[in-house]
Amino acid sequence: MAGQRLALNINLDFDRTLIERGDWLFSQPPAKATDRVTVWLENQIPLNESQPVHIYHAASHTTGKLTLLQQPKLVPQQHALAELILEQPLFLAHGDKIILRNSNSTAVLGGAKVIEIHSPKRHKRTEARFDYLRQLIQAETAEKRTALYLQNHAVEAEQLMWIEQLTNAQLNKILEKNGDIRFQSWCFNADYRTQQTSKLLTALAQYHEQHPDQLGLGKARLYRIAALNQPEKLIYHFIDELLAENQLQQTRGWLHTADHKIQFNEQERALWQQVLEQFEQHNGQALWVRDLAGLLGQEESAMRNFLYKAGKLGYLTAVVKDRFFLTENIYATARLIKQLVAGKEGFSVNELRDVLQFGRKMTVQLVEYFDRCGFLRRKGNIHVLRDADVFDL
C-alpha cells in the first residue's frame, strides 16, 4: 500500500555504494529532474521576500532559495505562492510535499506543496500566471489539471505522465475524456491547433502580400517565421493537415495559399521547354543568363527577366547572380549531401566536387548557397548540416 515501508531485494550486479539515501526506484524512465518549482507555501515564522533555505523532500535533502511571488513579507500561518530554486535538482511531481528549514537548518520555516515543476524564468509575476496557478491549486483531479496544462500549450506526454504520476493508458483515458488530442509524443487541445494553424496561414498570407512575385515558402522557413518556439514535429504535422484540407497547397516544394498563383503565359511555356532542354544537355550543371541567351538567340535582359520569373515559380534557383540550377537538381544535391555526411561530422568542397563531377568554382558557389539558406554552415575547412529539413519536400 502507498506509504508503507518495505524491504526490497534488487537482483542486479552493481556496487551498493552507488545507492545513496534519497535515491528513487521508478517503474518507467523519469522525466528530467527539476531545479525550479512553484509551491503553495504555509509558513510558521515570518518570511522575507527572498531567503536561503534547506529543502527536504521524502528522503532527499538539498539547499536552495525561496522567493515569495506576490508579497514582500509573510506573517506566520499564511498561505502564499512562492518559487523554489534548488541547488540540486530533484524528482518532483504535482502535489509533492516539501519541508523548508532556515539557512542554518535550526528552525522549520514551513511546509509547501508543489504546484508546478520547471517554473518559467521570465514573466513569473503576471496576473494571467497567478490566475493559472490559482486554478491549479483549486483543481482537485488529474483531469482538471491536465486541461489547464494544455491551455495554449503543447506538452509532451512523458512530462504529463510524470507531473501527474500516470501510466500511458491513464493519460490516454484522460485526454479522451477531456476531448484533447495526442500526436505521437505531443498532447494539445483543439484551441492550440487553431491558434497555430491560424498563425501559419496568416504568416503565409502576409508573405504573399509582401512578395507577390514569389511562389511561396519552404516548410522549414514557414515554421521559423510563424512558430519558431513551438515543437517542430507538431507544426509540420499541422502543415500536413492544412495541405490535406486544401487550406495550403504545395508546388515544387513551395507552400502557398490555395488562391495564390503565378504562372507562365503560352509564349513563356514554349521558351521554358527550350531552356529545360539546355539544362538537360548540360547534365544538371548551372548555366549563366548570358550563355542561355546566346544559345537560344534571346536578348540577354529578356532572358534574365524570364529566368528570374522561372525562379519565382520554383523551377530554377540562382546560386549567385545570373547563374541558375534547376531547382529539382538543388533538392537532389541536398539529398546527396545528407548521404555524404551520414556517420561523420561534415564534408569538404573537394569531396562534393568529386562526387558531382563539377568544377571547383561551381561547387563552391553551390555550397555557399546552401550555407546562406541555412541548410549547411561552415566549420573550419568543412561544411556541416545546420537544418536538414530545409530541402525536405
From TrEMBL:
Signal peptide residues on this chain, from the entry's feature table: none
UniProt domain Elongation factor SelB fourth winged-helix: residue ranges: 342-385
Key words, A-Z: Cytoplasm, GTP-binding, Nucleotide-binding, Protein biosynthesis
Domain Selenocysteine-specific elongation factor second winged helix residue range list: 264-325
Gene3D superfamilies: Winged helix-like DNA-binding domain superfamily/Winged helix DNA-binding domain
One record GO biological process: selenocysteine incorporation
Domain Translation elongation factor SelB winged helix type, residue spans: 201-256
Compartments, record wording: Cytoplasm
Source domain of life: Bacteria
Pfam family, one: Beta-barrel_SelB
A GO MF term: translation elongation factor activity
Keyword Cytoplasm: yes
Protein's name according to its UniProt entry: SelB translation factor
Lineage of source species: Bacteria, Pseudomonadati, Pseudomonadota, Gammaproteobacteria, Pasteurellales
